[in-house]
């Protein structure tokens, strides 16, 4: 929570860039590096007119923002062509011309076509229709090694005709866009160096046999949860989660209490933070699904219902919960609010206003939850059950990185390298951005990563018919017109280009190139 924010030198530097940089920004970092906390702090302190958006309702609630579709008024079937035909007069009066910055959290789940829709809409209604996103600064926050965008099977064939990948970086607007890459390095969730290295290896799909052996030392197929600890099972499917929760609830022979949530205004029922019909019993293991205003718990805290005190005068029942730390708390109904951003002409500022609310007890049964719903949460003890295996990019990494330490993990089955699903396009994109963030440092990335980044930049310059500028192996500045990438006799990669310094065709070894930059608009 915000009150525990460690404003170290890293966070202060990033906060300054968010506030002062004129470039678009991609802010990323491993799980547990404080991306969401940093966003919350900056949103509360910025002097800019900003809107905070997210791809899903639950994610939007977590950052007190709006969904992308709600903010722009997009229907679920939105396309660039539909914006050009039907959305020309739908810009909220003044709003899109006054907004300075749009933040999109959980960017890993935003599809490329949706980002192009945002660009098209903002060019119609923003400050400058000649600039990407209408001149609005964009800040994208998220971890591309976590859960990916969803493209339905029925869409995949036609989608692949227009986009190389479903990720936001494959959007047409992204091509040639001036971006600043910021990577948070310090991990706050875990402190065990060995465990952090295992997670990083899974993230990058290069786990070695020693790490695999150490991870599988946590296998216990007959594990029984001790009565004095809270363990939560992470599963790959909703069905498995439901079976586990119903099984454990059925083993408790206490009275069952049922509570119906109440919505008002324009609260989208598809974004419910907890189930509408909550069935619980004293003795049930639960998870809190909202941050407590008094700081007694956070979204993701586990606990056990001690008793339920009914209110015979018609008021709300009181649910007494024992949290993991032994603290007993009284839980009453919580109100979530759905916000929207509006422009106030009187103050020339953007304001957020509530357009709907939903009231329910801020807890849910939690002997098990899906890996998908665990994203963004932290647990001390987890049982990880991959069932028949993982099926999505980043799924194994998300599951394992929820836990604060290796000793808190129990694997229901041995972990296999096949459980690691990594999208090579994500690795390629990130390698390019990491190199561009520090092109002068040959030690900041390995040779393979550097070459992938250079090839990406060179091919882009060739396609755009732009020049390249770089420093060669003799520390000389070169400006060249790139022609083709060659493979040398020792399988080394080379650039064939016309050099304007020597006015002739030259061959440059990629391993000796540094500070490579495409000169946009120059040919």
Helix content: 25-40%
- Spans of at least 5 consecutive residues whose pLDDT stays below 50 are none
**Mean pLDDT reading:** 87
Structural class: alpha/beta
Main sheet summary: 6 strands, parallel
Envelope shape: globular
| Separate helix tally | 15
Strand content bin: 25-35%
End-to-end gap? 50 Å
What assembly state would you assign to the polypeptide chains in this entry?
A: single chain
Spatial ordering of strands, largest sheet: 3-2-4-5-1-6
**Count of beta strands:** 25
Cα-atom radius of gyration:
25 Å
Structural commentary:
The protein is α/β, with parallel strands linked by helices and 523 residues long. The radius of gyration is 25 Å and the shape is globular. Strand 23 and strand 24 form a beta hairpin. The protein has helices at 9-20, 35-45, 57-62, 68-72, 80-86, 95-98, 112-125, 153-162, 193-203, 209-216, 238-250, 371-374, 395-400, 424-437, 447-464, and strands spanning 24-29, 50-54, 66-67, 101-104, 137-141, 179-184, 232-235, 257-260, 262-265, 277-280, 285-288, 302-309, 318-323, 328-331, 334-344, 349-360, 363-365, 368-370, 382-385, 409-411, 467-471, 477-487, 493-499, 504-509, 514-519. The model has no long low-confidence stretch (mean pLDDT 87). It is built from 15 helices and 25 strands. The strands form six sheets. A six-stranded parallel beta sheet has the order 3-2-4-5-1-6. Strands 14-13-12-11-17 form a five-stranded antiparallel beta sheet, with no helix packed on it. A five-stranded antiparallel beta sheet has the order 24-23-22-21-25, with helices on one face.
């Amino acid at each position: 929570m915000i009150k525990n924010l460690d404003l170290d030198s890293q966070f202060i530097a990033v906060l300054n860039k968010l506030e002062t940089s004129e470039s678009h920004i991609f802010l990323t970092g491993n799980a547990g590096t404080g991306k969401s906390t940093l966003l919350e702090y900056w949103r509360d302190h910025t002097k800019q007119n900003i809107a905070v958006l997210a791809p899903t309702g639950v994610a939007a609630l977590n950052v007190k923002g709006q969904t992308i579709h709600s903010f722009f008024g997009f229907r679920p079937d939105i396309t660039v062509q539909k914006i050009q035909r039907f959305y020309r007069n739908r810009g909220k009066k003044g709003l899109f011309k006054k907004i300075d910055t749009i933040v999109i959290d959980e960017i890993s789940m935003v599809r490329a076509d949706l980002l192009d829709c945002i660009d098209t809409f903002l060019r119609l209604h923003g400050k400058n229709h000649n600039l990407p996103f209408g001149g609005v600064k964009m800040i994208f926050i998220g971890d591309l090694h976590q859960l990916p965008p969803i493209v339905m099977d029925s869409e995949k064939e036609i989608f692949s005709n227009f986009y190389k990948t479903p990720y936001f970086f494959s959007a047409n607007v992204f091509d040639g866009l001036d971006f600043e890459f910021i990577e948070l390095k310090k991990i706050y969730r875990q402190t065990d160096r060995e465990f952090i290295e295992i997670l990083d290896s899974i993230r990058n799909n290069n786990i070695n046999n020693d790490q695999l052996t150490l991870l599988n030392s946590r296998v216990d197929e007959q594990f029984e949860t001790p009565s004095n600890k809270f363990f939560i099972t992470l599963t790959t499917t909703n069905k498995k989660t439901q079976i586990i929760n119903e099984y454990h609830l059925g083993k408790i022979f206490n009275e069952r209490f049922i509570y119906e949530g109440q919505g008002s205004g324009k609260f989208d029922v598809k974004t419910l933070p907890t189930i509408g019909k909550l069935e619980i019993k004293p003795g049930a293991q639960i998870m809190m699904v909202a941050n407590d205003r008094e700081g007694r718990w956070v979204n993701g805290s586990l606990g056990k219902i001690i008793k339920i005190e009914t209110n015979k005068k018609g008021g709300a029942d009181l649910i007494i919960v024992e949290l993991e730390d032994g603290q007993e708390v009284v839980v009453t109904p919580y109100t979530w609010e759905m916000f929207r951003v509006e422009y106030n002409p009187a103050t020339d500022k953007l304001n957020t206003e509530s357009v709907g609310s939903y009231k329910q007890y801020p807890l849910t049964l939690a002997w098990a939850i899906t890996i998908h719903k665990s994203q963004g949460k932290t647990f001390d003890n987890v049982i990880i059950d991959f069932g028949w295996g993982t099926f999505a990019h980043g799924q194994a990494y998300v599951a394992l990185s929820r836990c604060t330490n290796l000793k808190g993990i129990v694997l229901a089955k041995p972990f296999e390298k096949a459980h690691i699903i990594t999208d090579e396009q994500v690795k390629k994109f990130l390698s390019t951005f990491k190199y561009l963030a520090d092109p002068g440092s040959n030690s900041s990335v390995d040779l393979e990563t550097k070459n992938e980044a250079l090839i990406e930049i060179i091919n882009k310059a060739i396609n755009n018919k732009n020049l390249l500028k770089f420093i060669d192996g003799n520390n000389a500045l070169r400006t060249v017109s790139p022609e083709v990438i060659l493979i040398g006799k020792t399988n080394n990669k080379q650039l064939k280009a016309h050099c304007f310094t020597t006015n002739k065709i030259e061959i440059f070894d990629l391993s000796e190139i540094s500070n490579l930059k495409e000169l946009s608009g120059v040919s």
